[in-house]
Amino acid sequence: MIKAGIIGSTGYAGQELVRLLLQHKEAEIVWYGSRSYIDKRYSDVFGNMTKLVDQKCLDDNMEELAEEADIVFTATPQGLCASLVNEDILSKTKIIDLSADFRIKDVGVYEKWYGLEHKSPQFIGEAVYGLCEINREKIKKARLIANPGCYPTCSTLAIYPLAKEGLIDMSTVIIDAKSGTSGAGRGAKVNNLYCEVNESIKAYGVASHRHTPEIEEQLSYASGEQVVLNFTPHLVPMNRGILITAYANLKKEISYEEAKAIYDQYYENEYFIRVLEKDVCPETRWVEGSNFVDLNIKIDPRTKRVIMMGAMDNLVKGAAGQAVQNMNLLFGLEEQEGLRLVPMFP
Question: pLDDT tens for residues 26-36?
Fold first, then answer.
């Protein structure tokens, strides 16, 4: 059995990790880390874990955890993992970090967008960006995984095939994104209260959202050119889900059938990516609670643009599910283990 430890197990992504790992045939959780609930029973924090988890929450002692766990998940705010990791720890255990600490290769870009001094820049170079469908072989050999952000996962997967094929003008890419409130985390914030969010929709982080450089970096790798784009997220009154609608100018005229064939070619062997039939738009309700990503495209010959769409659950494929998928790759397991989750509806 793989012994797994979680630092930040009482956040939304951390609790989702617990839910997934409890259903995993090859893993057991040995450490439920939470600074806020030390010595409190995990099931007292989350009632859905009653009779499922009897353990108490522990602190974030990475040194002790590295001695006990084969894999450590850090579902924590930006900066914490970078402040805890060191060579001794990485020699004893593998780490999958769900924060942004190791996603961006340019430490200056990270520090500018996140307003933090990076505490362990020496590990940025070796950290592997854990977007499984694109970096699968690199992930298998890694000891430090940067689990991608939710918006970047959906955005990159939706745009990647056409960017990689050089069929879109990358200087024209615009991404409109919408997310449920769980994407903002479990911390108490006035703007996320029920009365503030319900019956409303709003843009936030306009021209300044922290996921922008992550998306730009990944699409730069895909297209082979420096990408600068507009990314605008919106908060919608639902618990889970991300919907991406991206727009770009086509470099040449192509039909829907040609574009669809490209997506099918890139993703035909990817269990978790579902390229939908013509004119079927992705919807968050059909991926909720699962690790699936639904994608489709629409060619607009009138404007010579392509619309690329994606939907996924921000807490599963956008966080905990992708982390478990990365763990499976690291330990040579079947990639779908613990993740054969049928989407929930209603």
Answer: 999 999 999 99
Please check whether residue 243 is in contact with residue 282, taking contact to mean a CB–CB distance below 8 angstroms: yes
Q: Which of 57, 81, 150, 154 is catalytic?
A: 150
Running DSSP on this structure, what letter comes out for residue 242?
Answer: E
pLDDT of residue 103: 98
Which position has the token pair 């409130």? Answer: 181
Determine, yes or no, domain membership for 333. Answer: no
150 catalytic residue (yes or no): yes
**pLDDT of amino acid 191:** 83
Tokens of 81: 């993992």
For residues 303 and 183, state if they share a domain: yes
Asked if 54 and 159 sit in the same domain, the reply is no
322 within some domain: no
Residues 166 and 69 in one domain: no
Domain that holds residue 230: 151-314
Distance, CA of 337 to CA of 346 (rounded, Å)? 25
Gap between the Cα atoms of 75 and 152, Å rounded: 17
pLDDT tens-place string over residues 301-316 = 999 999 999 999 999 9
165: Cβ contacts below 8 Å, ≥ 6 apart: 262
Q: Model confidence over 151-209: pLDDT tens digits?
A: 999 999 999 999 999 999 999 999 999 999 998 888 778 888 889 999 999 999 999 99
In a shared domain, residues 201 and 254: yes
Tokens, residue 84: 């805890």
Which of 19-28 are b and which e, b meaning 16 or more Cβ less than 10 Å from the residue's Cβ? bbbeebeebe
